[in-house]
Amino acid sequence: MLKKLIINNFAIINKLQVDFHGGMTALTGETGAGKSIIIDALGLLVGSRSSIDFIRTGQEQLNVQGLFEVKSSSPLFAILDEYGIAHEDNQLIIKREINRKGRNVCRINNELVKTNVLRQVGKFLVEIHGQNQQQELLDEDNHINILDRFADDDFQIELAKYQQLFTEYQDKRSRLRTIQKNSQNLAQRIDMLKFQIEDIDSAKVVAGEDDKLEDEKNQLSNFEKISSALQESYRGLSENNTGVVDSLGNVRDQLEDIMDYDDSYKELYDSVNGAYYQLQDNASTIADQLESLDFDENRLDNIQKRLITLDSLKKKYGPTLDEVIDFGKNAHHELSEIDIDDNTESKLEQEINEMQETLTDLGKTLSKQRHKTATTLEKSINHQLKDLYMPNAKFGVTFAALEEESPSINGIDQIRFDLKTNVGEDFKPLVKVASGGELSRVILAFEAIIAEKMNVETIVFDEIDTGVSGRVAQAIGDKIYKVSQFLQVLCITHLPQVAAMSQRQFEIKKETVKDKTETRVSLLNDLQRVDAISLMLAGTKVTDLTRQHAQELLELAQGEQKRLD
């Protein structure tokens, strides 16, 4: 349950800290005082959508903190373990900060988490019921999901199996539609890929081949120039009497005779001697080059043809040879992904038909279980409606079957909630016959039934009693109190009967401090509760008579609590 809520710079709230307890707590005050703002702040803690519009005027950021005490059996601990979030003593601290730049920081037990993790944890902490739940009940598409919430665990397991199979079924149908719709384009694409692969593979391209061929082509194209240059170089170095090597040899011999007379002569000798042997090596290398030099006209022709082939590939798939090779690899991969044999379409159709039959069988099983759940739910809701002073109202669940070839993610059923409010009337869709006050009571009837099953710590009723008064208001107070025997209940209410049934009552007031509006929250003692409920009864002015009436209402509520306990 929620133990402590701290709010800073949220809307008209400057700084606020509220300590909560188990059971039923009422939040009362004038319209616009900030009751729903407190619930909005609590919603942020459990993952609701953030907005910079929540930040108090003149401030740069807001922050909300909550301390929760969690039952050791709660499924949320498995989520904390999954994300490596430490937890001790069954307590949880959640913090959320939002600044004007849109930065949104969420922490659970001081561990930074993403908003989706906060939502996963939050759904096991707090459930908020207000106008959104009325909208959910008014949308017939939601009725099947609401009904399934009341089914047993075996049904939930079977539904999960069905939905997994349905997802696979939809995937296969989608693939079949894609194949059928794009069969011509697909065939063209396959042909193109095969052509490109054949074009590249037949060339047997080798990385770096074009550069090597260009070098070889340059040599063959300039054979005469290269041969002439090598011959002249060899003659210049090695021919007797005129060759550079012989001349340098003579210089070396002269220096050798005098090298012992001075160190400088020795250095000259060493230098010339090194150059002499280097030139000898060069002459030998040039001789080898001349001996190996060979002109093959056919080879040059083949190289030029090969380079034309490679240039053509680079223009189509390049611009480099490496990119041509990569293009071929990617084409192979794409073809392996989309190339299908002629039997693929017929195989898919057969698989889809088989899966459809299985889905129909599973759907029929789910439908039988739903009918049983619906019967039990109808009895329970009608019993609750009698307690809520709708003695002549009857709640019903209407079933319609989908076409066998068109199952849905939830099975083969279409579900609609019906209601008749008076004797002699026919059942009509709930969305067409229920008034605001009647809807509030139907929602509360659902909540009273499901309270024992809910894997949640705290439930919030945000003005769920709108549109009712008198004895109906007392009946709603009784129901909310019954829910609080299983869950912590926070209830925003304008009804004195509902407020009186709470074990604790907070009063929310709006004040002006230094030209700024602020929300204040006060836990009321017994005398203050009398005044607060007296004001709720009177509307404007508190009198001795209204105080007397408020005191009596609180005493009657205590009697009701003992009876319900």
TrEMBL record:
InterPro entries: DNA_recomb/repair_RecN (IPR004604), P-loop_NTPase (IPR027417), Rad50/SbcC_AAA (IPR038729). Residues 4-233 form the Rad50/SbcC-type AAA domain. Signal peptide: none annotated. GO terms for molecular function: ATP binding; ATP hydrolysis activity. GO terms for biological process: DNA recombination; double-strand break repair; SOS response. May be involved in recombinational repair of damaged DNA. Belongs to the RecN family. This is DNA repair protein RecN. It comes from Companilactobacillus heilongjiangensis.
